[in-house]
Amino acid sequence: MKKTLIIAAIAAASLASYYLFIKPGKNVQVEYMAKISGTWKLDSITPAPGSDSLAILPIADSNFANYRYQFLDSATVYRMLIDRVKDTLSYQYLKNNFTWIENGDSTFCTVLVHDSSRFVLQTGDSAKLVFRKLAD
Predict the structure, then answer these.
(1) What is the rounded average pLDDT of the residues 44-61?
(2) Gap between the Cα atoms of 75 and 33, Å rounded
(3) Which helix (DSSP H) or strand (DSSP E) does residue 13 occupy?
(4) What element of type H or E holds 28?
(5) Rg (alpha carbons) of the chain, rounded to whole number
(6) 19 DSSP assignment
(7) What φ, ψ does residue 34 adopt, rounded to 5°?
(8) Strands of the chain, DSSP E
(9) At 47, is the secondary structure helix, strand, or coil?
(10) Within a 10 A sphere around the Cβ of 52, how many other Cβ atoms?
(11) For 74, which DSSP code?
């Protein structure tokens, strides 16, 4: 009888802890994706130290300064050139981790800054991409 009560008390404490600390039903991935949704412009790309290459990401090419990036809550990014969709990319954003996905290839980045007007990513080789929020 004592064992049953002890097991029931442990189960109740575990269940209470789960609901107090984990708070089920809250999707953190969606929260971060909602923060980035909107139209952004890639202001600058700083190559990795000791590298001359701008072939950092699938988004970096000679027109990078002219592109607009429309981030959707559905983890889709439309790369647009003069209001025409040029490419469709996917992304994942959770806490300080950001991943670009194009044609099955992934590029992992760390989020250095994310506020209402700027979004700065750093790739694994220390290249930096600075995005600026545009008015929707």
Answers:
(1) 64
(2) 7
(3) helix 2-17
(4) helix 28-36
(5) 21
(6) I
(7) -70, -30
(8) 38-46, 67-71, 76-81, 84-94, 97-102, 105-114, 118-123, 128-133
(9) coil
(10) 7
(11) T
Average pLDDT estimate for 107-119? 85
Q: Is the pLDDT of residue 131 over 80?
A: yes
Mean pLDDT of 92-102: 82
Q: Which two structure tokens, joined as six digits, stand for 23?
A: 């708070």
The number of beta carbons lying within 10 Å of the beta carbon of residue 59 is 18
CA 8/CA 86 separation, integer angstroms? 59
Q: With beta carbons less than 8 A apart as the criterion, state whether 91 and 107 touch.
A: no
* Contact between 95 and 4 (Cβ < 8 Å): no
AA letter at 71: F
Mean pLDDT of the chain, nearest integer:
75
- Most confident range (mean pLDDT) of 17-21, 28-32, 80-84, 119-123 is 119-123
∠84-104-62 over CA atoms, to 5°?
45
Side-chain-side CA neighbours of 134 within 13 Å: the count stands at 14
What was the pLDDT predicted at 117? Answer: 86
Nearest to 60 by CA among 135, 136, 125: 125
